[in-house]
Amino acid sequence: MTTSNDGGGDVRLTGISKTYGSFTAVHPLDLTVPQGSFFALLGASGCGKTTTLRMIAGLEEPSGGSVHLGDQEVTHLPPYKRPVNTVFQSYALFPHLDIFENVAFGLRRRGIKSVKKQVESMLELVQLGEQARKKPHQLSGGQQQRVAVARALINHPKVLLLDEPLGALDLKLRRQMQLELKRIQTEVGITFVHVTHDQEEAMTMADTVAVMNAGRVEQLGSPSDLYENPTTTFVANFLGTSNLIEAEVDTRSGEDIVLRAGGGKLVLPGSRCSAPTTAGGKVLVGVRPEKISLAHADEAGAVPEGRNRITGRIADSSFIGVSTQYVIDSPVCPEFEVYAQNIDRDARLVPGAEVVLHWNPAHTFGLDAAQAID
Ligand code: ATP
User: Fold this and answer.
1) Whose CA is nearest to atom 18 of ligand 1?
2) Which domains occur in the chain, in start order?
3) Mean pLDDT of residues grouped by 10 in the chain (374 residues)?
4) What is the ipTM of this complex?
5) Whose CA is nearest to atom 1 of ligand 1?
6) What is the number of the ligand 1 atom nearest to the C-alpha of 197?
7) I want to staple 158 with a disulfide (CB 3.0 to 4.6 A). Which of 53, 54, 83, 135 is the partner?
8) What stretches of the chain show up as alpha helix (H) in DSSP?
9) Per the database record, which ranges form the ABC transporter domain (predicted)?
10) Which of 16, 26, 27, 49 to mutate to test the pocket of ligand 1 (most atoms within 8 A of CB)?
């Protein structure tokens, strides 16, 4: 079933901000969410993501800026006059009504008499056709959340806002519901704006993720962009594990930047560096743990040419099923440890062993070393 969508599902925030007394919860923010996309606002507790969502919903009056839905400015419209609906973590179902009537509620309130077909098709969309006559307490948490989604979609909003909708579910159910919500969004084709503090959830579901920190969007991009090419230390560390090595710009070689780290050199593609690259400048060179290969120092000669390499000593290793995770001390990153995964178990790669870490320079990113390390 497809919800009719005649345009107007773009969300455009222009200089939107929110202050509470002298405290700024959201700094002036410009953001466009294209119609039909699954967009996630991701960040730690208190970063301003819920406040941003509530300003789109009309549940919070902005202190400045404007909100447009499609061509319509809605900044000062009450929630019920906006073509949006919100799903909350708490489900907020009516306990005395059965599932059918919970979903029918929005239609009946608008005076629509013949609701059967629409409700049934909505229940089918969320795969609860069999549960129509049950009461909310007879359903699992995941099923109740799907009722909440069906109820929010029944009036064909142009934008569905989801405020930590999976927060109350256990991990397994959460993962199932992530896929389920993604399927529903693809099927109805409307804009979803989803607030979460869970990076895996945002990465699994969203086409575009805005990473928020202290009331600002730090970086906006596709999940793979953000993971492969973070531009701040906050994003690099919030989305997975990053190894950060302090290095100094040496020269440029075509598109590449050559850096000095300890006694050696590292190569970084210019397009993946968000730091100034004047000679002598400091850059934090980052590489994700699973991109690194590990060789015993005796076999350093067998490491192919053209790889970035650093030396170190294994401090610790732990077998974690699909891979072995190594903690490595290295002179070039005295303040950090380096984790390397996906290495075949090798009897010689034990704590104390001298090793060479090496990786394809294409997997290297560069951050401004002047930033605080989060
Ligand atoms: P969480 O995941 O914990 O809900 P969040 O990122 O959604 O966090 P917000 O709820 O948007 O954060 O809150 C942002 C900041 O604004 C927080 O520091 C919060 O304490 C503050 N805040 C939110 N609502 C109010 C209010 N009504 N009065 C004062 N401060 C508020």
Assistant:
1) 46
2) 11-228 (3.40.50.300), 242-368 (2.40.50.100)
3) 56 97 96 95 95 96 96 94 90 91 92 90 90 93 90 92 88 88 92 95 95 96 94 91 89 90 90 85 90 89 92 86 82 69 69 92 92 56
4) 0.94
5) 45
6) 2
7) 83
8) 49-57, 99-109, 116-125, 141-153, 171-188, 199-205, 223-228, 233-238
9) 11-239
10) 49
